[in-house]
Structure formats: C-alpha cells, structure tokens
Amino acid sequence: MAPSAHMKRTREIRAHLRRRIALTRGWLLLEGLWRGLWPAVALLGLYAALGLFGLWQHLGGWLHLGAFALLVLAMLALAWGPIRQLALPGEQAARRRLEDDGKVRHRPIDAVFDSPALVTGGALLWQRHREAMARVAMGLKVRGPRLSLVAADPWALRSLVLLALFIGFLYAGSDSGRRLTAAFQPPLSGAVAQVAIDAWLTPPAYTGQSPVMLAQGELFPVGGPRTAPSQPISIAEEAVLTVRLNGGRQSPVLRLGDAESRFERMGETDHQIEKTLDGADLEAIEIMQAGRLRARWPLAIIADQPPGIAFVKPPSQSRRQALRIDYQITDDYGVAQAFLRLTPMGGDEASSLKIDLRGGQTVDGPQKLVAYEDLTAHAFAGQLVTGILQAEDAAGQIGESDPLIFRLPERQFSHPVAKELVAIRKDMLAAPPLAFKEADRLDRLSRAVDAFEGDFTVFSAMRSAFWRLASDRSAQAVDEIAAILWETALRLEDGRMSLATRSLRDALDQFEQALDGDLSSLDESADALEAMMQQFLSQMARQQAETAPMRTDGRQQSQVIGSDMLQQMIQQMRDLAAAGDQEGARKMLEQLRDIMENASVNQMSAEDYERMMAASKAADTLKGLSEDQRNLLDETSRQTIRNRLRSTLGQPEQDFGDLEQAQQALSDQLSEMLSMMGEQGLEAPKGLGPAGQSMGEAQEALARQSGAEAIKGQAEALQKLEDAADAMQKMLDQALAQMPSGNGLILWGGPSRALIRAALICPMPLMPGAWKKFLRNCAGESAIPIWGKPNANICVGCCAAFNRVFPA
After folding, report:
1. Rounded to 5 degrees, what are φ and ψ at 245?
2. What string of DSSP letters covers 70-135?
3. Rg of the Cα atoms in the chain
4. Which of 230, 244, 242, 225 lies closest to 293, judged by CA?
5. Cβ-Cβ contacts under 8 Å for 701 (sequence gap 6 or more)
C-alpha cells in the first residue's frame, strides 16, 4: 500500500475510534451522575406518586407550597455531594471501557494511536502489528450505560418508588396529567389557595324541571373539589350552565370536552360565565384557573326523545254529532301542540284537513286526552277518511301515529226543506264549477213558503243564496253560499239550538285558551262561558218543552236543570286556575265539555228511579250490617277467651248482656230493611231470611251466656249477610246497565235530582261503573267524598250547591 493511502486509512480509523471514545465517555459520565443522583430522583418519584393519589390537591395552599419547598431542598442536599465529587471521565478510561466491553487484550486502541519512537528496520513489522490491532479496534462496539444500582441500593428501595408510580397512574387514570401538573404547580400564596364557587344548571323551560345546584358558595382547593359526585349529574340537552367564581386574579376557563371558554371578569377577583350545554357527548364540567383545576363535575346529557301520539280508540260521534277524538301523548317532558290530519280516501295531502288538538305535560307518564270537533258542516262529512295524529314537542321534534281509517259524522236532518237544502249544498261542494245548475232547485224550494211555515228569515236566506248563485260562479261564492244553506238548514231543524251549541263550544275553547295563555283574561272568558251555558240550557228547555211527553196526571215528566249548578262548576274552575292548578281546571273543563257534547233528553219513570234508589240504600244497609256483625263477632270471640281464662283462674265470668243488646239491634235493623224492600216492591236476596234466623240463635246463645254457640250463630249470619250483599250488588249493577243514558247532561224529573247533581257537578267521569257510587254517596241523605282527599272540598261544595238549588 502506498504511504499516502496508508496514512489516509489510519486517519479514518482514528476518527472513527474517537467518536466511539467520546460516546463512551458520555456513558461513563451518565453512570456517575445516576449513581450519585438516584436518591434525589427516587424522592422526586415518591412526590409524584403522592400527587397521582391526590394527596397534594387535598392540602391547603400553604401546606402544598411547604411540601414542594422541602422537596426542592432535599433534592439539592442529596445531589450536592455527588455532583461536587463527580469528575469527568478521561480518554484512557473510555478506551479501557471499550476494550473491556469487547473483551480484547493487548490494548488495540492504544496501538492504533501510538507511533514508534525510532524508525528502524522494524517499521514494516510495526505497521503490520498496527493494522492487525486496527482491525480488532474497529470491531469494538459501544455498549449502553451500566445503570445498575445493586451496589448503591442493596435494599432495592427504588423498586418501591416504581411500584408506587405504577399504582398511582392506574388510580388516576385519564386524570394523571392534570394531577401531576397540579402537584408541581403549588400556589404561590395562601390568598388563592381556595376559591368560592356558585354553579348551577338551568334545564330548558319546556322540561318543567327545577335548576340543579352544583355548588353554592362552596370553597374548592387548588387541586380540585374535595369530593366528587359518585354519579354523573343528569341534565337535559340545551341546559344553561351558570358559574360564578370568587378568588384568584387570573381569569378562569370553563372546559366542556375539547372546547374552552374564558370567564368574564366582574371584579378584581370575581368572574362569571354562562354557557349552553349543546353537546350530547359531554362527560364533565371542568373549571381551570392558572393551569390548575378548580372544580369538576361528571355530567350525563339526556337527549330529548321525539314525542309519541296514538289513538286510544277509533274516533266516535257524540250525541250532538261532533267527532270525539280519544288520543294519548307521550314525551320526555311534554307535547307543545298536537294535530289530526284528515285525508279523504283517494285524496292527496293537498286536500287534507288539519285539526288542532291540545298537548300537555307528560313527565308523570302518558296522558290520555279527549277532543271534540264539529265537522258536520265540512265537505268531508259522512266520508271515509284516513286520520293521522301528529305531536310536536318544544324542541321541534315531531311524532306521528299509525294511520286510521274511519267515517266522519254526518248530520241527519228530518225537516224536508232542511234535507233538500243539505242535498243542494252537497251537490254544489262536490262540483263547484257546476254549482250554478243548482240555482233552479233553490229557486223552486224558496217559493214553497208553506213548507217552511213562512219563516221570513229562511225565505230571505234562500233568496239571497239564489241570486248570489245566479250571478257569481267563483269558488269563494260557492263556499259562502254553502255556509248560508247550512245555517238555514240548522235553523229549520233545531231553531236556535244549533247556534247556542256553537256559541257554547266557542266559549269553551276561549276559556281553554285563557288557561293556556294569559290568565288575566280568565274572568272575561268565564263570564262569557256562563252566559253561553245559560243560553244553551234555555234552548234545551225550549226543545224539551216541545218534545217531552206528558204524564197522565198532567205533570211534565222531565224538567230543565238549574243553571246554578253549572255556574258553581265554572266558579270551581276559576278557583282552581287562580290557585295555580291549571291542570285541575282543564280536567274539569273536559268534563264540562263532555257533558255538553252528550246532552240529551231521556225519559225514565219516577217509579223506576225510586226503586233503583231503594235498592241502592238496601245495598248500603247490607254492607253496614255485615261490618257491624263482623265487629260484634270479634268482640264476642275476645270476651269468650277472657271468660275461659277467668274460669281457669277461679274468677267470675263477664256477662254477655251488652253484646246481646247489640245483636238485638242488628236483628231489628235487618227486619226494618226487609220491610222497606217489600214496600218498594224489591225482591229480597234469598240469604237474608236465614241470616235473620242465625242472628236470633246468636242472641239466644248470648242470653244463656254461651259464647261458643253465639260465635257459631254470628259467623253463619255474617256469611249469609255477605252473600246477600253480593247478590244485591249484582242486581243493582244490572239495573244500572239498563239505564237509558250512559253519561252526559240528562234532563230527568224530581226523583232523579241527585243524579242530575252528580252528572253536573261531581268531577268524576260519569261512566256506568261510577253511577252506583253516585247513587250510594251523592243520592243519600249525606254526601261522602268518594274520589279522594284532594277534592273533598269540591264534594262539600257540590252538596251545598245542590241543597240550595233543590231544597228538601
């Protein structure tokens, strides 16, 4: 090899070895530092482990700051001696380390860097020796640092620190970073060690929920709250978070997930923020200040579900030909508004009819509602339609019911002119462009003056419709003429009854709107409702006088209900609304609407009602007798046991005289009831006769001071009384089921006044199952609340009102 090439190769080898030697010197320096500083590092790890366990965030500001200062001083003390004694490793030490790691002999690195002292004939041999050593040196690899602390820490205390850190990270979980940051950022003064926080969540108004308090003037330490809620705080979407923080000079930050919002400064140390929680994936509310966590609350956002609505049963027809809609609504909080969309068979949505229905609060569960809508004047009347219910909540979500096909009510007219007017009207609405062809029919009908008894109003209406139809063929004219013909037909059929019914319906709707809106107009709406109700009753009275049959003795069989009762009911609705119970007022309004829509004139003889009331009174008497007989049986059993004990102890037995008199009173009461039933023509249940015999036997046994025989007779009498009461109840139920009307406003005569009172005033649904309770409790001599304590005052008011209207 040429001398120049040899020198170049030697320089490259030396440069390569110098880099390895420099790296090895760095490792030697690191090893020296590690052996000298590991106690300080172990102390730092122990402090961090305690921070992961949350120790420092629960200490006051001064204690945390003092602990951190002690940590710094201890680490400096432990590190000062080793650092002062530490010397930088030399090149020779690095060479020996490389050769020792490579397990080679004869110091090949020194041979590479050495040169012969004299250039003699042995130069060639030296060159070959150095080349051999260079090959060995180039094969040496730099090993990693030797960081073993076995000699420096024979008790392996460092393992305990590592174990504490591992457990601390598992304990803190995702909060590890924040806890470590808070541990190494202690407060610089005691003034900001704690902050006072007021925080609350305000649910959306449509939920009807109260605000949820998170903190009320509570003091929170630097590292976070002293205690965190065990369960996430559940709150509805779009709830508003309000936080007021007092303490600290730096502006706090509200952290909601990945979003951060800075508080508004209200004073030197006062801050406030208001934020809407619009993220369904939020897991916690965090308040940060100066990089430290002030407070944290876990959160669970409850998504608002769409509302539900369904038919409870197919729509039906009321007695006054209105469409009755029974429906049920469900939602998380409440339905803002509901609709019924009617589409004729074969039609499209453009021709559909939309009817507004009432929503309501559904927090306590599904709510069943009833609505009435008079569609007899609509073009769809009598047709098959597809009905779909729709509900919309306050959040704008819409739910729909399954479609239902049913036929709309159609008014049937009996007056011949009214029937012809309705037929003309139907043909006009079926083909509006050809409506002018009906002018001749209308002209001929208007000239038959005798057919409508010369009613000038009817004649004027028909002539006006005729001339309008002959001169104007627009769609608007057809609709207006159809309305005139409908009103004329109603006048011919009902007189002013239809107008009174429509006015009452409007008054009921206005009163309901007042309940849902501005209560200041409630008095005005209630006054209008009273006036329309009076007009409605007056028209019914006129209709009743014209149509009701007369008795053979010349007395009218039915009479018109006094309006004072309905006024009392309206006043109760006023009182409920004034007391803030709008829901109770609405329920009472629904009952009043149901009474009006099902008002009718029904006939039943006074004798039938007197017999029914006698049966009801007998059933009550039987129940009372059974209860008294049971109590007497119990008392007889107790006294018999006491007498046996007295006989065992040699003491005189107690006399049965009082019990004998009580048994005699029960027997007399049974006899009186049987006599009353015989006078009313009622058939007594078969078990009552044997029950009286058993009572007599028990009385005789008590007279003989024979408790065992008396108990046997009383038990037999009790069983027979209960069987007779069940039989009487079944008989009464069968009679009630045969009543001519199931519910509503019924115009009955004198014997049925108590039933009239129950139908008009008592706020219970007047279904057949409830009539027997009215017969027993409202038709008796004294009224008993039968629907629970909350409405007991209404029962008293009802009875007082009835006594004023129908004095005994």
Report:
1. -120, 130
2. HHHHHHHHHHHHHHHH--PPPHHHHHHHHHHHHT--S-HHHHHH---SS-STTHHHHHHHHHHHHH
3. 50
4. 225
5. 707, 709, 710, 712, 713
Nearest to 250 by CA among 197, 290, 210: 290
Which residues lie across from 328 on neighbouring strands? 310, 368
pLDDT at site 273: 92
Q: How many other β-carbons are positioned within 10 Å of the β-carbon of residue 282?
A: 18
The secondary structure of residue 777, as a DSSP letter, is: I
Pick the CATH number of 308-353+367-407 from 3.40.1130.10, 1.10.10.60, 2.40.30.20, 2.60.40.10: 2.60.40.10
Assigned token pair, 546: 């014209």
Residues 6+ apart with CB under 8 A from 85: 36
In angstroms, rounded to a whole number, what is the distance separating the alpha carbons of residues 593 and 369?
12
| Residue listed under structure tokens 């027993």 | 776
Cα separation, 592 vs 599, whole angstroms: 10
Report DSSP letters for 14-52, one per residue: HHHHHHHHHHHHHHHHHHHHHHHHHHHHHHHHHHHHHHH
Q: Collapsing DSSP states into helix, strand and coil, what is residue 313?
A: coil
The secondary structure element, H or E, covering residue 712 is: helix 707-737
86 and 32 Cβ atoms separated by less than 8 Å: yes
Structure-token match 């509503």, residue found: 744
Count the alpha carbons within 13 Å of 32 in the hemisphere toward its beta carbon: 17
Among residues 486, 505, 323, 315, which one has the least CA distance to residue 409?
A: 323
Rounded to whole angstroms, the Cα distance separating 419 from 441 reads: 13
In DSSP terms, which residues pair with 420 in a beta bridge?
none
pTM across the whole model? 0.47
Q: Cβ neighbours of residue 317 under 8 Å, at least 6 residues apart? A: 323, 324, 409
Using CA atoms, how far apart are residues 275 and 282, in angstroms rounded to an integer? 13
State residue 426's pLDDT score.
86
pLDDT mean for each 10 residues of the chain (808 residues): 67 76 75 74 86 74 80 83 73 73 72 65 69 74 71 73 87 78 69 73 83 80 56 85 82 86 83 84 82 83 86 86 88 85 82 84 79 85 90 86 90 85 86 83 85 83 87 85 87 76 80 73 80 77 54 36 64 79 79 73 53 76 87 88 84 85 88 82 79 87 86 88 83 60 36 35 37 39 32 35 34
- Rounded Cα distance, 692 and 385, in Å: 63
Rounded Cα distance between 360 and 394, Å, is 11
Dist CA 481 CA 465 (whole Å) = 6
State the amino acid at position 614 in one-letter form.
A
60 within 8 A of 190, measured Cβ to Cβ: yes
Contact 371, 325 (CB under 8 A): yes
Query: Among all chains, which residue has been given the structure tokens 């590479």?
Result: 112
Amino acid at 284: A
Query: For the domain with range 187-302, which CATH number is right: 1.10.10, 2.60.120, 2.60.40, 2.70.50?
Result: 2.70.50
Q: How far is CA 340 from the centre of its chain?
A: 24
Say which residues have a Cβ less than 8 Å from residue 637's Cβ, sequence separation at least 6.
Answer: 707, 711
Go through 150-184 and write b for each residue having 16 or more CB atoms within 10 A of its CB, e for each that does not: eeeeeeeebeebeebeeebeeebeebbebbbebbe
8 A C-beta contact, residue 411 and residue 321: yes
CB atoms within 10 A of CB 551: 13
pLDDT of res. 4? 67
What tokens appear for 483 in the block?
Answer: 């309305």
Contact (Cβ atoms closer than 8 angstroms) between residue 621 and residue 673:
yes
Does residue 481 sit in helix, strand or coil? helix
